[in-house]
Design a protein that fits this description.
heterodimer; A: 324 residues; seven-stranded mixed sheet; five-stranded mixed sheet; 14 helices; 14 strands; 37% helix; B: 337 residues; alpha/beta; two-stranded antiparallel sheet; 8 strands; 42% helix
Chain lengths: 324, 337
């Protein structure tokens, strides 16, 4: 066991990737001299040099596209887009090139590219820096989407993502970078499965990424109130591991999906639709969700908190399903 | 209506064999596309079909100045580039038919011709979408110490896109071996360049990125070939990217849905006097490198290649519907290739 922060876990993964494969390189805005906007890449420039830890201009479209091209050209690029908000400027390259190339070329070309980006709200950085668009990315065939919600996953998901021959997008919730945990030495290279983070029998709380810690807290609080909640961490947002989700829902017969995205068209909406399609008769109550209020995320602290899913809302939603 | 230059003329500085190769390749594109238009009318080819007729000298002259291991990134008007590059006419025609014997298994169609063997990284149908990709291919080569040029073709319409400016900057900043090949056919679909660009001198845009640039007469295959030779030599020397503007003209409509309301028919007719094929064959004849009989024989040969391609496409098969979701992700046995 060793004690690590989420940030350190990700940095360790990057360092190991750069050490282990000469084809791996990192590029993005301020990943080098600045040390990374969230200090994830701090020290890597000194260790691996400017060829492999590349500071880019503020050209999301070009450097993400260059990542696609470099992957086609035999490299294993890790592209850091500072945040999901700026990834909108690069969406064409991700959606129209990275995601389509393998299928559209009749299987001739693969794009072994990893794109990392911070996501989420909760730090009073206002509407343009607080988006959660994991659901958009998770709706695109041809890419895979990961959302490490624990320190262990922050450390362990990068290596299998790099080993994957297709484009993988990794979402790192900005609120998670400082969390710490004891992590086992042995690595978990699974990027296919959801994980049950807490076992329970009465209600299944399904979530991912930045909402995982508060959902686990909610489960703890529910336990104090006599509600035995299970917590499912999706981990992989595309393809979704519905087997794990459905097994949990069938056991608990009630489901709450906690998702920081806006409610309409959210990942929560997709999961609830699939629960309804596949486990309708196993339910004791209609599945429900706790999402972000459909407004731009305001700057003022009290309003931001009111917009985002909060602990008490998760607790209330779970209890409501039990008629409490 | 603007004045246009006199038709290309003057000596052809090539051995007969190479000159005839250039002529033949232009003719192959022309006849293949004339046939494609016909097949479109018959409903054999569907979707979008963007013809290159009138612009053949650009792809032929430029690609013959490159080496076979160079990377090629093209646009949705890329039948000619694929053909000159070495994709068979059969595979191109079958692709346009949507047959699984096509170079993209019928998944891409006219706009998305791919061929790993000849390093054709696609017909890209998002204007400007190929440029960042080309920058990345060149970056990969540079990082791996591979001596190779990445040729990236795009129309002048793309220079209005952010992707153009970002890619030019990045390639110049990192001194990457990209040959930016701008096919300026004067119209971005229906929008004339002076209606979309505040600066219509495209080489000036390259200069703003401290990138060397040359302009070629895209109707004159000699000008195209010589200019591309010079540019690719510089790129291959490791001097960083190079920008070439090929002034050319599209004789046909933008796509099969275009009523051509935006340009004067007289303008089109006048540009046809600068047609790359007849002007080049006239020069060859004047130099005694080609006779009319030889030209007709060549044309017959090309005609039978087109016939074979059509027969191949007709005989092709449809990918089974059960395979619809194949290749969404790379199968395990392909990993690491």
């Amino acid at each position: 066991m060793s004690r690590l922060s989420y940030r350190e876990g990700m940095r360790q993964a990057l360092r190991e990737a750069l050490s282990g494969d000469p084809r791996v390189f990192l590029m993005g805005e301020d990943v080098g001299r600045y040390g990374g906007t969230y200090a994830v890449t701090k020290g890597l420039l000194e260790e691996f040099g400017p060829e492999r830890v590349r500071d880019t201009p503020l050209s999301e479209l070009a450097f993400v596209g260059a990542g696609v091209g470099a992957a086609l050209g035999g490299m294993r690029p890790i592209v850091e887009v500072m945040t999901v908000n700026f990834s909108l400027l690069a969406l064409d390259q991700i959606v129209n090139n990275a995601a389509l190339y393998h299928h559209m070329s009749g299987g001739q070309f693969s794009v072994p590219l990893v794109i990392r980006m911070a996501t989420g709200a909760g730090r009073q950085v206002a509407a343009q820096h607080s988006h959660s668009f994991e659901n958009w990315y998770a709706s695109i065939p041809g890419i895979k989407v990961l959302a490490p919600g624990t320190v262990e996953d922050a450390r362990d998901m990068l290596a299998p993502a790099l080993a994957d021959p297709d484009p993988v997008v990794i979402f790192e919730h900005a609120q998670l970078y400082n969390i710490e945990a004891d992590v086992p030495e042995v690595r978990n290279t699974d990027i296919r499965s959801a994980a049950v983070r807490r076992e329970g029998t009465m209600v299944s709380l399904i979530t991912y990424g930045g909402s995982l810690p508060k959902t686990l807290q909610a489960a703890t609080q529910l336990a104090e109130e006599g509600v035995d909640a299970e917590v499912v961490d999706l981990r992989v947002l595309r393809p979704l591991d519905m087997a794990t989700v459905l097994a949990s829902v069938r056991k608990c017969r009630r489901a709450v999906v906690v998702d920081e995205g806006w409610r309409t068209g959210s990942l929560a909406a997709e999961i609830i639709a699939r629960i309804a399609e596949e486990a309708f008769y196993d339910l004791d109550a209609p599945p429900t969700r706790v999402c972000t209020e459909e407004v731009p995320i305001p700057y003022a602290k009290h309003l931001e908190e009111a917009a985002l899913p909060q602990l008490d809302e998760i607790v209330a939603a779970a209890k409501a399903l039990l008629g409490r | 209506m603007k004045m246009i230059d006199a038709p290309p003329s003057g000596p052809v500085p090539y051995e007969r064999e190479f000159a005839l190769k250039l002529l033949t390749d232009m003719l192959r594109i022309r006849r293949m596309e004339e046939k494609s238009a016909e097949l479109y009318g018959e409903g054999k080819i569907r979707g979008f079909l963007h013809l290159y007729i009138g612009e053949e000298a650009v792809a032929v002259g430029a690609l013959h100045a490159l080496e076979s291991q160079d990377n090629l990134v093209a646009t949705y008007r890329e039948h000619g580039h694929a053909l000159v590059r070495g994709v068979t006419m059969e595979a191109i025609m079958a692709e346009m038919y949507g047959k699984q014997e096509g170079c993209s298994r019928g998944r891409g169609g006219s706009m998305h011709l791919f061929d790993a063997r000849t390093r054709l990284f696609g017909g890209n149908a998002i204007v400007g979408g190929g440029l960042p990709l080309a920058v990345g291919l060149a970056l990969a080569d540079k990082m791996q110490g591979v001596q190779r040029v990445t040729a990236c073709f795009f129309g002048e319409g793309a220079v209005a896109e952010g992707a153009f400016h970002e890619s030019m900057n990045l390639a110049a900043l990192w001194r990457l071996p990209v040959l930016f090949c701008c096919e300026n056919n004067l119209y971005a679909m229906g929008t004339a360049i002076e209606r979309s660009e505040s600066q219509t001198d495209l080489c000036a845009k390259a200069a703003s990125y401290d990138m060397p640039a040359l302009r070629a007469d895209g109707q004159d295959i000699v000008s195209v070939h010589e200019t591309t030779q010079r540019a690719q030599r510089e790129v291959r020397r490791g001097r960083g990217p190079f920008f070439v503007e090929y002034r050319t003209y599209r004789f046909r409509a933008h796509s099969m849905f275009d009523a051509e309301l935006y340009r004067d028919k007289r303008e089109v007719e006048e540009w046809k006097t600068r047609g790359p094929l007849h002007t080049f064959s006239a020069r060859l004849k004047a130099e005694g490198k080609l006779t009319e009989e030889e030209f007709l024989a060549l044309d017959r040969e090309v005609g039978s290649e087109v016939d074979r391609a059509v027969a191949f496409a007709e005989a092709g098969t449809w990918e089974p519907v059960e395979d619809l979701t194949n290749d969404l992700y790379t199968p395990p046995e392909m990993e690491g290739t």
